[in-house]
Amino acid sequence: MRAMATSSVLAIAVTLASTGLAAPRAPVAPAGMVLVGPGIYRPLYPTAPSEQAVSVGRFFLATKPVTNGEFLAFVAEHPEWRRDRVKRILAEAAYLTHWAAADRLGPGVRPRSPVTNVSWFAARAYCTARDARLPTEREWELAARASDKAPDGSKDPAFTARILAFYAEPAALTSLRDVGQGRPNFYGLYDLHGLAWEWIYDYGASLVASDSREKGDAARNRFCGTAGANAQSPSDYAAFMRVAFRSSLEAAYTTTRLGFRCAADIEEVP
Amino acid sequence: MKDYRATALALCVSASALALATTGCQQKTDVRAWQRRLTPPAPPAPPDVTSTPPDEPIMAVLVAPPNVPPPTNRTKPARVVVKMTVKELAMPIADGAQYGFWTFGGTVPGSLIRVRQGDLVEFHLQNDATSTMPHNIDLHAVTGPGGGAAATFTAPGHASKFSFRALNPGLYVYHCATAPVPMHIANGMYGMILVEPPEGLPPVDREYYVMEGDFYTKGKYHAKGLQDFDMEKGIEARPTYVLFNGAEGSLLGDKSLKAYVGDNVRIFFGVGGPNLTSSFHVIGEIFDRVYTEGGSHVQENVQTTMVPAGGAAIVDFKVQVPGAYALVDHSLFRAFNQGAVGTLQVSGPEDRLIFSGKQADSLATKDEGPARPDAAIDTATTSNLTRDEQIAAGKAVFASTCSACHQPTGLGLPGSVPPLAGSDFLVKNDKERLIGVVLNGLTGPVKVNGTMFNSVMPPWNHLSNDELANVITYMLSDWGNPGGVVTPADIAKVRGLGAI
């Protein structure tokens, strides 16, 4: 992956040199990733007036969530992340328990469906091992706002209704399908909605207090009657659900519907 | 009481002093006797709602609705442990229709929690590992921020614990308060906690637990299959279903509430919402006592009690006449077209001094007033009827259920309701089609006797197979129609086919 990133940079350099253009061209994305942004992200719960519209720079984001098969390969390379060897402080007891064994998926687990039951620490370790990182909340939300036609689908009723429909599906009856089905969004990203929740780097970023068991006033906004009062777009129920879900997490938690995908910085060419 | 005692004490002291001064010690015994006569009986000790509960905990008894756990029967505060697991489950919402409910403990509503004023409640909320969403609980009986919402905010596969002192007696709603809150409530995440006053509630013979809630599905009322939540209908407060205890028919037929003549019946009634308030009414009964809004004051002799969303009422009434009593939200389209109906079946001897019973010919008269399905249900659910018996029973069903629109004459209403009397629709269509129309309703244009009608007939599939067989047999046989017999088996067959 590191080699690939380097060659990408080289490719850009070559392109720039050969065309002689002064303006920087779109950098070539690492394998499995696409370029996202730049754009403006409007947090559901701005912590300050200056936070109501945050500009997000360009970054790379994986087109699909990490699958069971990919995570199995990672665990084989890094046995300290096997479920029987991982430190409990880094992943709780339910970590990877849907697999048949610590080093085997078993017949009930689809290799191409998103890996879930992974902690934030494990997700971060995976991305680091792939020369990547977890996307930030603003990056993820910016990417997820794109419909299949436009970078900002938030004013498109059909798009928002479709997202909401995913969350309204009775989860008890649906099992996790393979990644990469259906239509990609404007950037070429799959499964940001309608498959599994995804870890982000700063899953507790909108929380005021450092101890996420005492989440302070920012978290209070997520409960009961005040939930809609301070939010920027009270009708964006899907965003409410994501914020609520993220704020219920601790870094060692794993849940049956929570996976992740990786992001990467753009190495800007001078 | 205190003042009186103080005065008595002062009298005693001065009398003693006087006695000692004048006549000496030998008078003491008499003075004491006199004191005893003056001393009023000891007042009852104030109820103990403040003492520190013992360390030894009591597990709260949780039973599925409409059942109610037994009274606490305690005189001192206790440490009560409540354990609930949130589960996201697909369960029936109506006949043939399923819905993805989010539940406290697998039922809608969640179990009634019963504690006593002064109890220290230790609440354990577990969110099942199969859950998609984080959940929490806000109990309206809690004095403290969020009612426990933040303290119990729990990711899937995790558990939280918090404790609270039940300071105020009353009947309180609890619900999930995770954003988006109305969606969690619309999916069934509510229940109630009863905080008994220290002396307990007056004993009754039967206690039941019923909660009303409004539900919003993508499909229309009675659409079959797994139904998705419809956020738009929720925001616009256009419910598909308004239900008692989370499913149509949850208090009908075999699942009816039951009582015996002479019983005092108590219903712990609450409204989960998220949108609607309830006009709770039991057809044919008068609430003798209502703890309005679930609080401490009792209103007497109430016909209909208004219960807000996120609110409650305790209703007590004595049943004196056997029969079927319908529980309804008296905003009656909810009862007739959205499912808000249940029954209380009262068995036992008749008391004709209270209720005369029904004359055979009194049903079909125009001035009878609102439909009373009781008698029709009584006769129509008796199987193995002769054709004449079917016609008689079906006539009663028709009078109570169909005549409001199709008219007792069967002539319908010009321009809006097609006639059944001399109707070519009954001749042209086969039995299965006719059964299908009654079961599933009929919306849109239809030509009857050369006239086009374009209106809505609701589905009547909540009637029993016997009732439907009888009423269709009756319609085929009266008003000079060609005749024909429909059996309960015919109904069952068409029911099995789904919508026609």
Q: Could you describe the 3D structure shown?
A:
- The complex is a heterodimer of chains A (270) and B (500).
- Chain A is α+β, with helices and mostly antiparallel strands and 270 residues long.
- Helices cover 27% and strands 7% of the residues of chain A.
- Chain A contains seven helices and seven strands.
- A three-stranded antiparallel beta sheet of chain A has the order 1-4-7. Chain A has a two-stranded antiparallel sheet with strand order 2-3. A two-stranded parallel sheet of chain A has the order 5-6.
- Chain A is globular, with a radius of gyration of 19 Å.
- Chain B contains eleven helices and 23 strands.
- In chain B, strands 1, 2, 3, 5, 7 and 11 form a six-stranded mixed beta sheet that branches. A six-stranded mixed beta sheet of chain B has the order 12-10-14-19-16-17. A five-stranded mixed beta sheet of chain B has the order 13-21-20-15-18.
- In chain B, strand 16 and strand 17 (298-302) form a beta hairpin.
- In chain B, helix 9 (431-440) packs across helix 11 and helix 10 (465-477) packs across helix 11 (488-497).
